[in-house]
Amino acid sequence: MVGIGIYDEEVNRGDLQSLTLTRLKEAKALLRLGHGAGAYYLAGYSMECALKACIAKRTRQHDFPDRQKANEAYTHSLPALVKAAGLEDLLRAHESTDREFGENWLTTKRWSELSRYDRNISTDAAKDLLAAITDRKHGVLIWVKRCW
What we know:
By secondary structure, the protein is mostly helical. It contains eight helices and two strands; from the N terminus they run ββαααααααα.
């Protein structure tokens, strides 16, 4: 189990996968209600959970974690989580062969956990982020799901 969050609650890979899908549903519901800022934050947070599920998959039960790898996983930065999950080379390769995926990744990696404080994020920005994540052919989530 991986301890994440404010209360250091134990969360495992399956929990992170489930949270990914739940946060996406919540983001879509908020968007339908016209709450762009909340939708944007939760959509990006869903990707954080998805990438952390990839990291959790790479850990071995009962192994003492490497300190540097563990520290790298305790971030909200999506590019840093891609690195911590060991997916940088795969990401670059996929970007080079799928231009639309590359554009979707650019949109997705701009997300920041600091968006939770920004009440001025537009509905259009939330729509763009959700589309970049959930595109059925070129979306970031479909790519991340290959590793989780």
